[in-house]
Amino acid sequence: MIIRLNALDTLFFRDGKPFTMGEGSWASGSFPPAPSVFYGSLRTAYFARHPEDFNKANRPGDPTAALKIRGIYLQVGDQICLPLPADCAGLNEERGKALLLRLANAPKASSCPVPLVLESPAGEEVEAVEGGVLDCFSLIDYLNLKEEEFYYYKLSEFVLPEPKTGIGLNKITGTAQDHMLYRAAMWRLESPVRTGSQNQVVSFLVEFTGLNLPEKGILKLGGEGKAVYYETLGPEEGESLFFAAPELRGGRFKLYLATPAMFAGGWLPGWLDEESLTGSYRGLGLRLLTAVTGKYISVGGFDMREKKPKVMHRAVPAGSVYYFELTGGDPGEVVKVFHRANLSDYCPEQGFGLTLVGGVGND
Q: Which residue has the higher pLDDT, 240 or 156?
């Protein structure tokens, strides 16, 4: 089942920074939200319609236990957008254009733990891009090695920050409390008017299995009980989310993370040895060549049943890329094992670690 979520108002997604009303005045947020936000929203929608089952939540017999998120995407107008791969860097000379970095041997006198590094082609000055996204057609070209230069967008072109000022209320009297004034980082999902461009509808697409919901309705998403309207996509509309797998040549390939992933080794998947950077996964022998992960993000949440915050975890951000060399197993199984699979060591059913397989050139 694939649904499209359209915000009815601004949305609020907390980040990992602590905030206590009365001690601080700014509640920071992050965008896009973690996959667990959508997972919790879908479960909440089910229990709102079946309150008699709420006592089974996170226990044997939980009717939402089979829920698995298969994909989370941002849709801008008719375009499906995904994070700019971390092995692409922006060109200094031409804004909005990114270049695929090339593999090179790591320096011998270096603390770099991987055998290869990524560098820009000779003569090109590049810089890291924050908040960059590619449309799905450009991403397919990237995965299939059809292009090495890409035009990207910035999230700031589609998602407008709109801080909200509020004040804490006394739960008994309903009146304002002293020293409880705060500001929260809200987001409005539309192309900013200030750029002069025509406003485009910005939506989330969520693909999931294991849970039955009406074809359309209202969901709560993120903090402050903000609402979104959802509707089910037809088969033709959902075809663009399947990302045809590339034909791999040779024994090297890359894994691109379309959503954040939580690994047992921090930046390193738990099935890889930290010293040798080798391991096996579902019958495939693998050696890590290099990785571009970016800065970690903090993933937490609030447990509605236990009425307390969840344990905070660090996650590799979406857009991270891992280069591998196949050391054992059938090369034809690489795509079957990894493409459109959730590779996260923790909470893969929540949509963490959505992976797409890409080719690696013969640099």
A: 156
